[in-house]
Specification:
The complex is a heterodimer. By secondary structure, chain A is an all-beta fold. Chain A is built from no helices and eleven strands. In chain A, a hairpin with a 6-residue loop joins strand 5 and strand 6. Chain A is globular, with a radius of gyration of 13 Å. The model of chain A has no long low-confidence stretch (mean pLDDT 94). Chain B starts with a strand and ends with a strand. In chain B, the strands form two sheets. In chain B, strands 2, 4, 5, 9, 10 and 11 form a six-stranded mixed beta sheet that branches. A five-stranded antiparallel beta sheet of chain B has the order 1-3-8-7-6, with no helix packed on it. By secondary structure, chain B is mainly beta. The chains are: A mainly beta, B mainly beta. Chains A and B meet through strand 5 and strand 9 of A and strand 4, strand 5 and strand 10 of B.
């Protein structure tokens, strides 16, 4: 049972380049999330998807887009990367109606030069 | 101000108890959580407490909830070097199933 799988684990981009972070979960969860983690800032929610076919903005959505491709997959796209988007990105999933526990992937470390 | 606040660092000696504190502002909290993040890894749920409970104990872990003061603590007994990690406090409230996280407390355990 893999849980939440993110790819790639590491990526270096130049300013203005685009890329997509992929996330897949095999727990049949309805809800999925993208967070970014920066030193001293904790976790900040970028976008979330309550269920297949829906997406909503979180705390810091500017510069990002998301796609809930199906129940398993939730991707995060940077259309024109900026140095301020250098961060560690985490995907998570959860089942609504339970204790609300989030299951996290191992993270994707992105550096924008 | 922040919804969930934690101090950023805690240093303890191996074998001592660690107490990590958290304060929150929303009185309609339903669940409060402690997540652990080891270096280079994602967060994993360590324990949680429902808002109608005052205390929860699980082996070396004790969670205390003071609803009047909106204060949550995590006590780790007999702290080991393997407990070195970042610990995040989080809450969900009646209005949302999405947890709000604190900034995390880095626990450093030295011999």
């Amino acid at each position: 049972n893999a849980g939440v799988t993110q790819t790639p684990k590491f990526q270096v981009l130049k300013t203005g380049q685009s890329m997509t972070l992929q996330c897949a979960q095999d727990m049949n969860h309805n809800s999925m999330y993208w967070y970014r983690q920066d030193p001293g800032m904790g976790l900040r929610l970028i976008y979330y998807s309550a269920s297949e076919g829906t997406t909503d903005k979180g705390e810091v959505p500017n510069g990002y887009n998301v796609s809930r491709l199906n129940k398993r997959e939730f991707s995060l796209r940077l259309e024109s990367a900026a140095p301020s988007q250098t961060s560690v990105y985490f995907c998570a999933s959860s089942e609504q109606g339970s204790t609300g526990e989030l299951f996290f992937g191992e993270g994707s470390r992105l550096t924008v030069l | 101000g922040e919804d969930v606040e934690q101090s950023l660092f805690l240093s303890v000696r191996e074998g001592d108890s660690s107490v990590i504190n958290c304060t929150y502002t929303d009185s309609s909290s339903t669940y409060l959580y402690w997540y652990k993040q080891e270096p280079g890894a994602g967060l994993q749920l360590l324990t949680y407490i429902f808002s109608n409970m005052d205390m929860k104990q699980d082996q070396r872990l004790t969670v205390l909830l003071n609803k009047k003061d909106k204060h949550l603590s995590l006590r780790i007994a007999d702290t080991q070097t393997g407990d070195s990690a970042i610990y995040f406090c989080a809450e969900t409230t009646g209005g949302s199933y999405i947890p709000t996280f604190g900034r995390g407390t880095s626990l450093i355990v030295h011999p």
